[in-house]
Every structure is written in structure tokens, then in C-alpha cells.
Amino acid sequence: MGATGSKLEKALGEQFPEGERYYGLENFGNTCYCNSVLQALFFCAPFREQLLEYHEKNKNNGDAEENLLTCLADLFSQISSQKKKTGVVSPRRFVQRVKKQNELFRSYMHQDAHEFLNFLLNELVDILEKEANTPKSSSEASSMPQKLANGQTNLHVNGVTKESLVPWVHKSFQGTLTNETKCLLCETVTARDEPFLDLSLDIEQNSSITSCLKNFSSTETLNAEDKFFCDKCCSLQEAQKRMKIKKPPNILVIHLKRFKYIEQLGRYKKLLYRVVFPLELKLNNTVENSDTEYALFAVVVHVGVGPNHGHYVSLVKSHNHWLYFDDENVEMIDESTVQTYFGSAQEYTGNTDHGYILFYESLNSKR
Predict the structure, then answer these.
(1) CB neighbours of 210 closer than 8 A, spacing ≥ 6?
(2) β-bridge partners, 70
(3) pLDDT at residue 356 above 60?
(4) I need a surface site. Which of 220, 243, 253, 279 has the fewest CB within 10 A?
(5) What class of enzyme is it (predicted)?
(6) Is there a contact between 1 and 9 (Cβ–Cβ < 8 Å)?
(7) CA 254 to CA 200: how far, in whole Å?
(8) What pLDDT is attached to residue 3?
(9) How far does Cα 84 stand from its chain's mean position?
């Protein structure tokens, strides 16, 4: 990394952002799934700021129990406080903590970066929620009911719902979906809100994020065995159902469902489809207030032809420069390079590097 680091510093020259650090992460045997997600989160500005603030407030708390949040805060602080602009750090303590917390990540087998991201965000929510419910002094205890009243919400990730009191995690990632069901007999519309931290989108060949989002919000008819129980009719009725994004998050995380279970094969297969993800995304047809615009700032890329083997790297936009993070190695890339990770227009191709998790930042929140 010494040579790579100096090469990166030379490439940026006087344009190297003041106070910024570009560090690779050591790989401990198939931990690229972890490294790629960590780099994307490190360059998620609001998340990093809140995590460093948390570290600053808690660094002198000798009684604090080590957990995933303290390990992540320590790692981000370690990178941010490096004297050199570039280099390599070892996320050993964090990786050990991940393996201790979840047996899924204990083996040296190829892991899923999206599963890891969901696990990590859920763990951070749990830890902060417990801390919010454990006042450390009488003054904190007296203010706790107000915190509960102001911060309480349901969190829904991959079907898991939990009470959450974590304003800064919500502020970064949480949006709200509205599940609307319309009875075709009495035409009563039933709406149910569901908070979300990311959107998992089905993909098709030669498509785009915009078309995938349209499909996500398309109307589905419930009939035959799938009829809907209408409270007004007090019986099962045919109905129309659709999902809409009611409140878009500040950071929109989109997971492309590139791994599909094929019944004939009895296993999962990677879909190498070409899915165009734009540098700027406007949410149309999915949001009640449809003027939300986003800018792409990170992509977790899956390299390989199958779900059980391969590699993860990440592309990150920092201070108007695009960077390529591959474990210990960091290099500068042209913005035009990002489109080479859209996927493959043909089924059989030599290109196996595909965008898997996309991170978009709301431009509206910056205005």
C-alpha cells in the first residue's frame, strides 16, 4: 500500500481533500464482504459524523462494554485520526466482534455483503436502543420519558420489526413505505406504513434502477387463493395491492437481487443482467412527493459468476473524486469507469463485476 498510497497522493496532488483519509482495510480471509461495506459506510458523511461523535462522547468511559458499535466507532476514529493521508489499517477487532456476535460470519466461506449490512445496522440499532433505555444518572433518568416519546418508532428490515429509539441511525437510513390495498367490491383503501433501511429490488435484463423502482411500486391483483380480507365487507374479496415510498430516506440504499433461486437447478444462481444505475436518481411514480433527487456516492460490487464464491470491492465518491477500494488497495478511477459495473448485456460474458448494493444521498437534504 506504500507505493499505492503515494501513487494515490500523487494522482490527487493539491486536490487531496484537507482532513480526509483514504485507507485500505486488511483482509483476514474472505472478509472482503465486510471491508467493502465498511468503506461505503465510512464515506456516508452523516453516518460517519454521528459515529465519530459517539466515539468522542464515550471514549473515556472505562466501564463501557465492548460491542459492535464501540468497535466500529474505534475503527472509524482510527482511520480519521491517522497522520498519513493514505495507508492500511487492520479491522481485526471489529471482524472478531462480528464473528463473535453472529455464527453466520465465522467460517472462511464466501459471505453476502447485503446480509452483513443488514446485520450490522440492526445490531447498531439494538445497542443504541439498550443504551437509551439504561440511564447512567438520575438527571438522565428524569429526561428518559421525553426521549422515549420523541424517538420511538418501528424499524422494519427484511421482515423484522422492533421498537427503536435511535434518532441518528434513522436520520441517515430510515424511510417509510406505504402498503396500499384496495378492495375491488367496496373500493375501500387500507394503508399500512412500514419503515425500511434499504430497498431490495428484483432485476431484469437490460433494465435500469428507474424501471426496477416502477416494478417495485406496480399494482398487483389479489384473487383466487390470495384474496384479501376486507374489514368493511367482512369477507374475502378480490383486491389491488401496491407498495409506495411515502417518506424517502436521506441515504437511500438499494440492493439489487442478483442471486435468484432456480428450482430446476436446486441452487442459487447469479443474475449477470445489465442494470443501469445513474449517478443522479430522481424518484418518480413511487413517492407521494415525487421531487426527491439523489446522488450516487458508493457502490458495493460483487465480482464472480456465482453466489458461493467471488470477491467484493467498493467504488466511492469523495469530494468529487471516484475511488476504487479493494481490501488493502485504494486507487483513483474516472467517473466513466462506474458504468462498467452495470452488468452484462449478454448471458455469457467475461465481465463478472456487477453493482450489488447502491448508496444514494439525498440532494434535497443538502439544500
Answers:
(1) 278, 281, 284
(2) none
(3) yes
(4) 220
(5) hydrolase
(6) no
(7) 6
(8) 59
(9) 29
**Dihedrals phi, psi of 9, to nearest 5 degrees:** -65, -40
Using an 8 Å Cβ cutoff, are 197 and 123 in contact? no
Residues 252/200, Cβ–Cβ less than 8 Å: no
For 255-291, the pLDDT digits (tens) are 999 999 888 888 889 999 999 999 999 987 666 666 7
